[in-house]
Amino acid sequence: MTDQTPSLWSFGTTKTFQIPIEHLDFKFVEKCSDVKHLEKILVVLRSGEEGFYPELIECCEKRIQSLCPESRILRKEKPAATASSFTREEWEKIDGDIKSWVSEIKKEDSKVHFHEMDTFQELEGHLPPVRGTNSPLNTGKEKDNKSRSSQKKKVPRDYAEWDKFDVEKECSKIDEDYKENTTPNISSHSLKIEKNIGTIGLSDKEKDFLATREKEKGNEAFSSGDYEEAVTYYTRSISVSPTVAAYNNRAQAEIKLKNWNNALQDCEKVLELEPGNLKAFMRRATAYKHQNKYHEAIEDLKKVLNIEPDNVIAKKIMSEVEKDLNKSQPESAPQTKGKRMVIQEIEDSEDEDGKRSGEHENGSGDKKTDVPLRGEQRSDQPEMGNVQNKFTGKGNGKKSRGKEAHKCRDRALSGGTSQGQNSKPSPRLGGEVNGHLESDKTAGGSGGAKEVSRPGPAPSPLPLPAATAADLKNQGNELFKNGQFGEAVLKYSQAMEKLQGLGSESADELSVLYSNRAACYLKEGNCSGCIEDCNRALELQPFSIKPLLRRAVAYETVEQYRKAYVDYKTILQIDNRIQAANDSINRITRTLIDQDGPTWREKLSPIPAVPFSVQLHRLDGGSAAVQPTQDETTESGHHQKSQVTGKKHEDMFATLKEEGNEFVKKGKYKEALDKYSECLEINHSECVIYTNRALCYLKLCQFEEAKQDCDRALEIEEANVKAFYRRGLAHKGLKVVESSEEQPEGGSPENVSITCHDLEKGPAGSGSLAMGLEKLHISKPANAYEFGQILNAINTRKDEEACAKLLAITDPKDLPALLSNKLEGDTFLLFIQSLKNHLLDNDPELVYQHLLHLSKAERFMMMLTLLSKGQKEQTRQLFEALSDKSNHAFTAEDVQNLKKHYEL
């Protein structure tokens, strides 16, 4: 009955631990021997949730201490000791000990590490990046793993799926996953590691420490299988302190990369430093073995085995070298006897046939007027491929394409289907393949010129497919004009199928068809198809402008900016007047600088050198190939004999020209004069060389010679601006004022000076003349894209008048939206000059409104920080002139407030 009493009179339990309220009592605590239960009671009492009882808490603590003195609940927190916790003497002793310990640690650190931080300042630029930080390989693998894990189906599988389960296939997947997981993780670094480390200001001990550290990094890279990075770090170690171990290790890494020559050089360097180094002998023997120098390899291995007869690796390499030597000896001896005679006979016969290929082309003794010309071209310039056919096969079609190439990008995309190609079938499709039709057309003085290009007997089935191809091509052109690009692609493809079997005679037309189909692909957004067709067109007709331009646009669209830059540069070598290429070069250059930094040029592919014949054909307009006569054939043959051709001469010409340009930059005009004269000995038809040499003559005050060079340049290129300008300077120098006024339309003869000192302003004058040749037609832009295109064209020419027209027809409120985020320093300066020189006198209110809204453009504040002192001075002058013209629309105070926004 007494046991049931507590349950009858129960007062409930605590919230924490669910302890009965009756246990919170002195009697229960004194009798209880369960330490865990007492600890829970103490926690509840200390929390105060059932009230605060100090005596009961103290009683509970004493009971726990008597049962378990080491209980964790009896521990009490103590605050951290401070200076006030100790006596003055104790604290001084503690403080002194700490300070002495800190000073000793600093001394030890200075002995181990570098003594000063400014020693590292010169090394900061040479420190390599952390290996594997920017590696795209790991991220790609993680994505693959995620995709694979997502593709795996959840288990359990249903019965229908087990019926389709293929055990062999699943096992092969597991094996493939294992192989992929076990492949070495070789990271390809996008950052370039410098191979040389600056050692200025370092002691010998520091150099040894740094060289050892770089060598250890190379060892880590070698162990992980990244041999290229290992070579880089070994090279860095050698640049600090050349050691035998570093050279030896780099030789081993070069062997792994199969760079046998580099490995040989490193081994020889080791043997210079340490003549008896066994590792160098073994690694040099390995390199000799892979270079098939078996005797030298055997000699090195014998040296190793003389010192270490039990060297297993040397014995193994020796056996392999002896086997290779035995295999090579019996096979090489008899082959050299029989094959040398055969090779010599074939080469001799080919040379003889090559020399006479032009004379025996049609299988008869007759030589038509066109045969020797083509024969000489093919023998003198074999490396140009189909360039000869390009310039001798087509007349007006090529000429019209050359003229169209100066227009904007959209016209360049559709240019291959316009003018000469649409109006009538081209000569090669409609006439040259059809032999009897061509002979009827050219029955005059040049009647036999076209017949020479085909074989002796005229094939009968050729006219039908050629005529059909011409019709298909014209149909494709019409479809392209109507915007039916998919149907045009089909027509061009059918025309190409018709011409596939005609051989080299249809190369020109196939190139045009590929170029036209590429334009269709580009309009449809199929950039890969466009690039592929442009590549084929350029294989048939190298250095053709339209395929190059379309391929460049396609590359730029898919963000392959480096390839696009190379194509645009090649186009400008052929014709530097193509505005679309110039604009794109400027745009891509900024993108590449942002993407690759100052070293963006080093990451470009080499820009191909354009042959002289391509540039000469552009200057001549291709008209010389339309109707060759006997006199023209003789004259061209004489010109070809006198002109130096071939890749070697082109390289020499380019080298001499570059050297001359460098001399001009340095002010060494006499040396530049000699270089340009040597260029003219190689090719006397290059207009640029005459204008450059004329500049040198002007700098040397030899005005008569400068005038002669300018006359010669104008004979080659009638509208050359630099030639007009420099001839005007020469006339001024000769005191012939009347002649100096002969300038191209839009020129500025009043800018010409007669002193040699002021002749240095020539390039600026020529730029102003260039702007007068062709005025831009300014129309009101409908959107930001059109505004940007017009502004780019104006900015390229630095045409203030055109810029003023653009600002006059543009609402000032729309200016920030039209500019978007394209406000640059040169654009801002052009705006200021145009407003000041062309709009301020006529409409000062419009000038104020433009300046007001220009300050609201996106990059305005950033652009202000980049302005030079001269640009700020011009802006200040504009505001001063504007404040003098205040009216009802704005006051001088408004101008001053706006001036503060421009930070003037």
Automatic annotation (TrEMBL):
Domain RNA-polymerase II-associated protein 3-like C-terminal per the UniProt entry, residue ranges: 780-872
Keyword Repeat: yes
Cellular compartment(s): Cytoplasm
InterPro entries per record: CiliaryAsmbly_MitoImport, RPAP3-like_C, TPR-like_helical_dom_sf, TPR_rpt
Pfam families with a match to the protein in the record: RPAP3_C, TPR_1, TPR_8
Ranges annotated as biased composition (Basic and acidic residues): 353-381, 402-412
Spans of repeat TPR: 244-277, 278-311, 653-686
Ranges annotated as biased composition (Polar residues): 415-425
Gene Ontology CC: one annotated term: cytosol
Region (Disordered): 123-157, 346-467, 626-648
Organism: Vombatus ursinus
Keywords from the named record: Cytoplasm, Repeat, TPR repeat
Domain of life: Eukaryota
Name of the molecule in the record: Sperm associated antigen 1
Main location: cytoplasm
